[in-house]
Design goal:
The protein is α/β, with parallel strands linked by helices and about 220 residues long. It has 8 helices and 5 strands, in the order ααβααβαβαββαα. A 5-stranded mixed β-sheet has the order 2-1-3-5-4, with helices on both faces. Bound molecules: iron/sulfur cluster.
Length: about 220
């Protein structure tokens, strides 16, 4: 499976010195609640089947979420919102995602990110975003035969993903702007925008569970799932 091979190669990447230092420091120092756990502390690969027809693109792993568990959106509050919604619309086998080996399966859906290492304050630099771009490009290229829809969570992911998507599908000019619920058709691919499922957005009620379900449900239809 070429995607599994890509995931292994990705998990050894050390291209960004600041992010390598941060992900490893967080893994060493840990959060008190997880003091007994061994953190992953490496780049977090995409999660989901290699013949996915829907991709969900976030921002970057959370320091004590994906950087701890080794799986995208797993073990953090953003993931709680995302996986509940995926389960509600029939794209996940269970509403929670706690750790690798918890039995969670995604149906026709792959979750990934434009930056694969946890950044300080959840803010990658433009240089780090650009350094990580080839990984997303390879992943989307491998998914291309089956991919029909993409949901991008948040403006950072949107800005980072458009050039990568544009290498495969035609992007209109001027480039489509990010917005919650935005839908753009790029050749055979349906691209959707959704506010990021961050705790901050949910806490401020900028994003409700119903709003996430609504976008995911449209994307599921567009993907033929
Ligand atoms: Fe490598 Fe991407 Fe991590 Fe940078 S962010 S070290 S390019 S995996």
């Amino acid at each position: 499976d070429p995607l599994a091979t890509l995931d292994v190669a990705l998990s050894r990447c050390r291209r960004c010195p600041r992010l390598v230092a941060w992900r490893e420091e967080v893994a060493r120092t840990k959060r008190a609640a997880y003091a007994n756990e061994t953190y992953w502390g490496r780049p977090v690969p995409g999660f989901g089947p290699s013949d996915a027809s829907l991709a969900i693109i976030g921002l970057a792993p959370a320091a004590h979420g994906g950087n701890r568990t080794g799986r995208m959106f797993t073990g953090d509050r953003s993931g709680d919102v995302l996986f509940q919604a995926l389960y509600d619309v029939g794209l996940a086998s269970q509403p929670t995602s706690t750790r690798i080996g918890d039995g969670l399966a995604l149906y026709g859906t792959r979750i990934t990110a434009p930056v694969h290492c946890a950044p300080p304050a959840n803010k990658p630099t433009p240089a780090e975003r650009d350094a990580c771009r080839p990984w997303l490009a390879r992943e989307l290229d491998l998914l291309r035969p089956t991919l029909r829809a993409v949901v991008v969570l948040g403006a950072f992911g949107w800005q980072a993903s458009l050039p990568v998507l544009g290498e495969i599908w035609p992007i209109p000019k001027p480039a489509p702007r990010f917005g919650h619920g935005t839908e753009v058709i790029l050749g055979g691919l349906h691209l959707f925008g959704c506010y990021h499922v961050s705790q901050q957005n949910v806490f401020r009620s900028l994003l409700t569970p119903a709003m996430v379900r609504e976008v995911l449900s449209r994307a599921k239809d567009a993907a033929g799932l």
